[in-house]
From TrEMBL:
Keywords from the UniProt entry: Cytoplasm, Iron, Metal-binding, Nucleus, Oxidoreductase, Vitamin C
Function noted in UniProt: Involved in the regulation of shoot development and salicylic acid (SA) homeostasis.
Subcellular location: Cytoplasm; Nucleus
Presence of the UniProt keyword Membrane in the record: no
Chief location of this protein within or outside the cell: cytoplasm
Protein name, as recorded: Fe2OG dioxygenase domain-containing protein
One GO CC annotation: nucleus
GO molecular function: L-ascorbic acid binding; metal ion binding; oxidoreductase activity
Top-level taxon of origin: Eukaryota
Family according to the record: Belongs to the iron/ascorbate-dependent oxidoreductase family.
Gene3D superfamilies: B-lactam Antibiotic, Isopenicillin N Synthase, Chain
Amino acid sequence: MSPAFVLEVQTSREEEELVESHEYHDGVKHLCERGLAKVPRKYILPALERPFMSKKDGATNLKLPVIDLAKLQGPDRVHTLKSLSKACEEYGFFQLINHGIASESVLNMFQAARKFFELPFEERSKYMSKDQSAPVRYGTSFNQNKDSVFCWRDFLKLSCHPLSDVLPNWPSSPAELRQAVVNYSKETKSLYLMLVKAVLESLGVVEKAENADENDSCDHLKEFEDGSQLIVANFYPSCPEPDLTLGMPPHSDYGFLTLLLPDEEVKGLQIQHEGRWVTVEPIPNSFVVNVGDHLEIFSNGRYSSVLHRVLVNPFKSRMSIASLHSLPFNSMIRPSPKLISDANPRRYMDTDFASFIGYMASHEHKNKNFLESRRLTQQG
Ligand code: OGA
Ligand code: NI
């Protein structure tokens, strides 16, 4: 590379730095609307954290284990539960097919979210909030109050429980958004409950779904029914220099299970598997489901909440809708007593949402550091 060329690159990066620092907080889409040719310095990861550092990373696409909900609910349940258990142990992720949610509901949810991101900035920005527990939050990056390097994502987060309390806070524009989210959140909640029953059964915490109400685990199920739900619409604008930044940094999800609808046309989600980053190949009409920190704790470490991240690309923007589920906000999350024994001692301390939110507000979220802070013994 000639010295003259290097100089030219540096100069054009400096021109971009005319962006005022508060503007990063207005979101990546807003920034891109000015026509960026370079990634501003605020988004440039240290060399070792960039997405294509190792030749092995992303070299292969991963076929995640596939779980068929129709089989899970039918005569093949026992066999399917074994596959579910293996997927949660070995990958922390699976793809769910035949999930039974009407494609119209999914389409309406995507369309409403897309229209929200297309609103004029002034309209979207009404919902910006620094309060991590606000029932509606439009924002950017991963944890914009703490991130030293920003990531290439804008989001809309909507709390969904209890619906009557939160609904009046949701955006009133686009007009169809509230109804689309109400329908979608109800459908994903019942899907989640079916999956939770299967997960409890696969862990041996509940004997059989039909008997669940008759044994002492019914309290668990009630707690799950009354649990928290957060819908997150993620928007990743196309990026002029995708090898310098990430749409989302490596992270684990905090809840019990996340039901993710990835963009069917644009890949980007990568999970860490056997020590390398692998790209998830979307399957049409399916969900990507993953184990969160709370399920890792509840299962006393048998199921793992696996690190994942999002790549961006120079050609197309990408959207995904995540539905994050856990216990009620004031519940304690702890290893199930049935999964603790002399041979398998308790591995995590009790934790609750308050401590989680407190942790998130006061630390830069890196990898699985929240879960590590709850760990009692080193896994050997
Ligand atoms: C998330 C997440 C992945 C994606 O929202 O927590 O990991 O593909 N999303 O957008
Ligand atoms: Ni995630």
